[in-house]
Design a protein that fits this description.
By secondary structure, the protein is mainly α. It has helices at about 1-15, 20-55, 60-65, 70-120, 125-155, 165-190, 195-205, 205-220, 225-245. The radius of gyration is 20 Å and the shape is elongated.
Length: about 250
């Protein structure tokens, strides 16, 4: 995990040194615009769902009749956590849509990063590009399915008072792992590893995936600039974190 986090700082120096800004800013600006639009509508939908749920289950009427400030506080906290988990779930779906659409560009950026490191170019082939796109879509769909299963389970757990307070942390770790998984897979894909081999390898190196995804999410704490830089930085950082494993034969 430490290697994955350090790789982001290396990625910044690498991008500056080799002037890769056009490959960073173009997808980053598109991602930011879609992110802002999507999260605005997702936020409104999440709030509406919580209000509907409280009304349909009779929970709001029961809390009003009970008139207990402590119980009300617990369920208010539960509502906030439920809203946060919904936002993570929505963001996860948005993220995978962007990964599917941007997979050719991300695959190219990962390839270009390694080509610069080794001082050579990888041969380009349109047929191979189509295979890479198909592979990227498969991995994204596979990860989104498993992540949805985990997040729905965590979503149910969030309804449990007190114990549910830990669910945002669990949801974030799951998010980080599966996002980092997608970024690391570009390197596995380039070296013609099968999807099964990639799943096995990254599963055995969860720290690399979680660390990569963690910084990606933390960068969203820096409005606009962080959103623009986060996607492409994560690709370059993942490639740099995987390269030492290649050089040691792993």
């Amino acid at each position: 995990m430490i290697i994955a986090i350090q790789a982001y700082f290396e990625a910044h120096r690498f991008i500056r040194k080799h002037k890769l800004w056009k490959w960073i800013l173009i997808p980053g600006i598109l991602y930011t615009l879609l992110f802002m639009l999507g999260m605005y509508f997702f936020g409104k939908t999440a709030s509406t769902f919580i209000e509907w749920l409280a009304k349909e289950t009779g929970l709001q009427d029961w809390l009003n009749a009970l008139d207990n400030s402590f119980i009300g506080f617990l369920f208010t906290m539960g509502g906030m956590l439920l809203w946060l988990l919904q936002m993570l779930f929505y963001f996860s779906l948005f993220k995978y849509m962007f990964l599917i659409v941007g997979s050719p560009l991300f695959a190219y950026l990962s390839e270009k990063t390694e080509a610069i490191i080794e001082g050579k170019d990888f041969p380009f082939g349109f047929r191979q590009l189509l295979k890479d796109i198909k592979r990227g879509i498969f991995i994204a769909l596979r990860n989104s399915l498993w992540q949805t299963v985990y997040l729905l389970t965590i979503l149910v757990l969030s309804l449990v008072p007190i114990a549910g307070w830990l669910t945002p942390i669990l949801a974030l770790l799951v998010e980080c792992y599966y996002y980092g998984f997608s970024m690391l897979d570009y390197s596995m894909e380039r070296h013609r590893k099968t999807a099964a081999e990639s799943i096995f390898f990254i599963g055995a190196h969860k720290g690399l995936a979680i660390g990569n995804g963690l910084i990606f999410y933390l960068m969203h704490g820096l409005p606009v600039i962080g959103w623009v830089l986060a996607p492409a930085y994560s690709v370059v950082a993942a490639t740099l974190s995987m390269y030492p494993l290649k050089s040691t034969g792993k």
